[in-house]
Design brief:
The structure holds two protein chains of two kinds.
Chain A: H1 5-23, H2 33-63, H3 66-104, E1 116-124, E2 132-135, E3 148-151, E4 154-162, E5 167-171, E6 178-183, E7 191-195, E8 202-208, E9 218-221, E10 233-242, E11 248-255, E12 264-268
Antiparallel strand pairs in A: 1-2, 1-12, 2-5, 3-4, 3-12, 4-5, 6-7, 6-9, 7-8, 8-11, 9-10, 10-11
Chain B: H1 2-20, H2 35-47, H3 49-67, H4 73-86, H5 97-121, H6 129-158
Helix pairs in contact in B: 2-3, 2-4, 2-5, 2-6, 3-4, 4-5, 5-6
Classes of the chains: A alpha+beta, B mainly alpha.
């Protein structure tokens, strides 16, 4: 067996694969030539399919029922009017909050100070193990690894790999992702939301047993994990479980974003994580 | 001869393309099929362990390079699946469609098991949801296996890949 050339070849391939696996298990700043070639072949094709799909969608609109469209427009107009009123009230609150912040000399980061780059999703992960999407902007548009990605509904994920004209976004539903969160209502519970690999389920861990967490509590980013700005919607608590140890709770969280239907996202291009004063290494 | 290799190289490229775009519109509970694996299983079944392993390794590498994360996991999983199912070459009655379908289900389970073990060994956490997604993928692969097997079978005996005997 040991004199067999075939055996040694497979042995070397296995060892090589185990090493690259380990080396590429963490996010990398740069990608290899081979990966660039693979993406160089696929990105134009995926872009093309996405464009065709867009045109087909328009064709579908033309052919679809006029009456259904009319009632939909009416419904949206109504909602728009309601939102305009809500907006007025919120603007009042915003002005009030800013006044109070000024009085308290309080510097808070707010979503409206960020530069957003719109991107279309052109492809998704080709297997079920990783939850990623490919967007149609890359290094040429100033995209860098680590930039947070959001949607009007809530947090989407972060840029994990960048090519010249495309970038890979790791979704928060990916098993490798973790987001520092707080509960919007009580502001007290710091927890970590982790992906489970399912598009409809996130898990919030490490909640102390005395926490006031309840079903339907809204979960938002805490800004503590340094990867994401503070205050972005993550999801809603759907179930609270007691851990077997009795000291901790865990919760199931329904993501705010519908990841199966996601078509466009916004990349925050000018978010700089807060500088950590001491030399402690910040975890994920 | 050259045409055969071009088709063998083109098929997994097409499969990855479909899996990253079209199949997501027809996913079952968020799970998509693994057409690359189906191709590896059939190739191994018809051409034996050695070629099956090689084809599995190359197809898996393509998928790994596309993902850029844990490069080598799919390569080893698909290579191993190709090897195991290639061992069955010569012992099973390939004229029977059920052989192809059962081989795909077995292949999906072997492949998922190897991926899970390798991911766990690299410090990744797996939840129960993974088991469901593997089951849904088995179901989806099962649906695709029949038509692809028929196409593959007739292609081999018709024109596409003329058999020259397994080494």
């Amino acid at each position: 067996m040991l004199g067999n050339k075939w055996f040694w070849l497979v042995f070397l391939v296995v060892i090589g694969a185990l090493i690259t696996m380990n080396q590429t298990s963490l996010p990398r700043e740069d990608i290899t030539m081979l990966e660039k070639v693979v993406h160089g072949v696929y990105t134009p094709l995926q872009n093309g399919v996405n464009n065709i799909r867009g045109h087909w969608g328009n064709l579908g609109d033309l052919l679809s029922d006029k009456r259904a469209m009319q009632s939909r427009i009416q419904e949206l107009e109504q909602r728009n009017a309601q939102m305009a009123i809500d907006n007025q009230a919120l603007r009042e609150y915003e002005a009030q909050a800013k006044r109070l912040q000024n009085i308290l000399q309080f510097k808070e980061d707010n979503l409206d100070i960020y530069d957003l780059q719109v991107a279309a999703i052109i492809a998704r992960s080709p297997n079920n193990w990783h939850k990623t999407v490919l967007i149609n902007v890359g290094a040429n548009a100033g995209i860098e690894p680590g930039m947070p990605v959001i949607h009007p509904d809530g947090l989407v994920g972060r840029i994990s790999r960048v090519n010249s004209d495309s970038a890979q976004v790791s979704l928060i539903t990916d098993r490798e992702m973790a987001v520092g969160v707080i509960l919007q209502r009580s502001r007290e519970t710091n927890g970590i939301v982790e992906g489970t690999g399912s598009s409809h389920l996130l898990r919030m861990n490490n909640i102390p047993y005395y926490s006031s967490i309840e079903e339907n509590d809204r979960v938002i980013t805490s800004g503590l994990s340094a990867n994401y700005p503070k205050g972005i919607d993550v999801g809603i608590v759907s179930k609270v479980n007691r851990e077997p140890s009795g000291l901790l709770l865990s919760a199931e969280v329904k993501p705010a974003v519908d990841f199966d239907r996601l078509e466009e996202v916004l990349v925050i291009t000018n978010y700089h994580p807060p500088i950590v004063e001491d030399d402690e290494e910040m975890g994920e | 001869m050259v045409k055969k290799y071009i088709i063998l190289a083109f098929l997994p490229l097409l499969a990855v393309f479909l899996q990253s775009t079209l199949f997501h519109h027809f996913s079952i509970k968020g799970s998509i099929p693994d057409m690359v694996l189906i191709l590896v299983v059939f190739y191994a079944l018809f051409r034996g362990g050695r070629r099956g392993t090689l084809y599995g390794l190359l197809c898996g590498l393509l998928e790994d390079l596309y993902m850029g994360h844990f490069i080598g996991v799919n390569m080893l999983a698909k290579g191993f699946t190709g090897y195991i199912l290639g061992r069955a070459q010569g012992t099973v009655f390939k004229e029977n469609l059920w052989v192809g379908i059962i081989a795909v289900v077995a292949g999906t389970l072997i492949n998922s098991l190897v991926v899970a073990v390798l991911l766990l060994a690299n410090g990744s956490m797996l939840e129960l949801e993974v088991a469901y997604s593997i089951l849904y993928q088995c179901l989806y692969n099962l649906l695709l296996a029949g038509p692809i097997y028929l196409w593959y079978y007739y292609s081999i005996y018709d024109r596409l890949f003329r058999m020259t005997g397994e080494s």
